[in-house]
C-alpha cells in the first residue's frame, strides 16, 4: 500500500494550512473510502498538499494525475443555465474523491489552451468546432467529449439519447390528445459561424411526419435562454393557430414560455401544456411545477471522468461512443387537450 510522506513539509503542516486534524489529512491523502467528510474539505487538503510540495511515494512512485477540463460556456453562462455546470460538478466530484488534480479552462478565456499544458487527460464539455476538435486532440490523446457527438471514432464521447427522449415527450403529449404540438428550440453557433444542428429538432420532425402531425408552423428556433423562450411563445400566442402544447429544448426556454403564457391570461395546463428538457432543480418550484425530460448531466460528468481515468490506468485505447437515456419526469404543467383542440 502506498503511503504519503513528506519532502518539504509534514502532515501537520498540511493540517494547519487546511484547518483540519492530522488524522483527517492522513486519511484523505491515503484515499480512505470509509472517511465521511465534505468534498470542500477534501479539496482543501489536496490543495494544501500541492502547495506545500507534498509528494506521494511508496514502493512505486506515481506522478499525480492531472485532468484538464475545458468548458465551452463561460462561467457566467454556466450560472444562467445550470446544465453544463452539473456536468462539470460531476467531473470535479469524481476527481476530488480520487485525488485527481484538476486544471480548469473556459473557452472564453484568452489563450485557454495554454492552461491545458502537461495534462494526463482532457475532458471537453459542450460544443466545439471541427478546427477546435483537432487542436484539442493535439493537446492530449486521452480525450473525452461530453454532450457532443464527434464524427471521429478515434475519440470517446458521451451524449444524450435524443431519439429516445423526444419520442418519450411527444408520445406523452399525443396520449393526452394533443395534435398541435409546438417545438421551441435553440441554435448553437460555433467558431467560424459553424452551426451545430440540434438532434432534437430532427427527431421532432421525424416523429411528426410518422404520426401525421403538422410541424412546419409549430417549429421555432431561438436561443437557449429564458428571454428567447418568452419571445418564441409570444409569437405562438399572437398567431392565428396556437399549439395546445409546447415542447422546449431546455428548461430555461420553457420557463420563458410559461411567463409569456401567464402574462397573456392563459392557464397551464388548462389552455396549453408545457414540457421542458434537462430537469433543473428549479422545475420543482415553478407554478405549476414543470414536466420535463431528465437529462443525466451530473452522471455524464462522473462517467466521463471515470472512463478517462480508468482507461488511462489500464492502458485502454479503444474509444467509446455512448448515448445516455433520458427519462420523462411528470409534474403539473401538462394535461389533456381542451375541448378536443376546438380552439
From TrEMBL:
It comes from the Bacteria. The keyword RNA-binding does not apply. Keywords: DNA-binding, Transcription, Transcription regulation. GO terms for molecular function: DNA-binding transcription factor activity; transcription cis-regulatory region binding. Gene3D superfamilies: 3.40.50.2300, lambda repressor-like DNA-binding domains. Pfam families: LacI, Peripla_BP_3. InterPro entries: HTH_LacI, LacI/GalR-like_sensor, Lambda_DNA-bd_dom_sf, Peripla_BP_I. SUPFAM superfamilies: lambda repressor-like DNA-binding domains, Periplasmic binding protein-like I. Residues 9-63 form the HTH lacI-type domain. PANTHER family: HTH-TYPE TRANSCRIPTIONAL REGULATOR EBGR (PTHR30146:SF149), LACI-RELATED TRANSCRIPTIONAL REPRESSOR (PTHR30146). This is LacI family DNA-binding transcriptional regulator.
Amino acid at each position: 500500500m502506498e503511503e504519503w510522506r513528506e519532502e518539504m513539509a509534514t502532515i501537520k503542516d498540511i493540517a494547519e494550512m487546511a484547518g483540519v486534524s492530522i488524522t483527517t489529512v492522513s486519511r484523505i491523502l491515503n484515499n480512505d473510502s470509509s472517511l465521511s467528510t465534505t468534498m470542500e474539505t477534501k479539496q482543501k487538503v489536496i490543495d494544501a498538499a500541492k502547495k506545500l510540495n507534498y509528494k506521494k511515494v511508496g514502493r512505486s512512485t506515481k506522478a499525480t494525475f492531472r485532468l484538464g477540463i475545458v468548458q465551452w460556456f463561460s462561467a457566467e453562462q454556466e450560472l444562467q443555465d445550470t446544465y453544463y455546470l452539473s456536468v462539470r460538478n460531476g467531473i470535479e466530484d469524481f476527481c476530488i474523491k480520487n485525488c485527481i488534480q484538476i486544471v480548469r479552462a473556459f473557452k472564453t478565456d484568452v489563450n485557454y489552451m495554454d492552461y491545458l499544458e502537461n495534462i494526463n487527460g482532457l475532458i471537453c464539455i459542450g460544443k466545439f468546432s471541427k478546427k477546435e476538435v483537432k487542436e484539442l486532440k493535439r493537446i492530449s490523446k486521452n480525450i473525452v467529449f461530453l454532450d457532443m457527438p464527434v464524427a471521429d471514432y478515434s475519440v470517446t464521447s458521451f451524449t444524450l439519447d435524443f431519439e429516445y427522449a423526444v419520442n418519450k415527450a411527444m408520445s406523452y403529449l399525443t396520449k393526452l390528445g394533443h395534435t398541435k404540438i409546438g417545438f421551441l428550440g435553440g441554435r448553437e453557433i460555433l467558431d467560424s459561424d459553424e452551426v451545430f444542428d440540434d438532434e432534437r429538432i430532427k427527431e421532432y420532425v421525424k416523429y411528426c411526419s410518422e404520426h401525421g402531425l403538422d410541424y412546419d408552423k409549430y417549429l421555432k428556433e431561438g436561443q437557449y435562454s429564458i428571454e428567447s423562450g418568452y419571445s418564441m411563445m409570444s409569437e405562438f400566442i399572437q398567431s392565428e393557430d396556437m399549439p395546445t402544447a409546447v415542447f422546449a429544448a431546455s428548461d430555461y426556454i420553457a420557463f420563458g414560455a410559461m411567463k409569456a403564457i401567464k402574462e397573456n391570461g392563459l392557464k397551464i395546463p388548462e389552455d396549453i401544456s408545457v414540457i421542458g428538457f434537462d430537469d433543473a432543480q428549479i422545475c420543482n418550484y415553478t407554478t405549476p411545477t414543470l414536466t420535463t425530460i431528465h437529462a443525466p448531466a451530473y452522471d455524464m460528468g462522473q462517467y466521463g471522468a471515470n472512463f478517462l481515468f480508468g482507461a488511462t490506468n489500464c492502458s485502454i485505447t479503444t474509444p467509446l461512443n455512448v448515448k445516455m437515456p433520458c427519462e420523462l419526469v411528470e409534474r403539473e404543467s401538462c394535461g389533456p387537450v381542451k375541448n378536443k383542440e376546438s380552439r
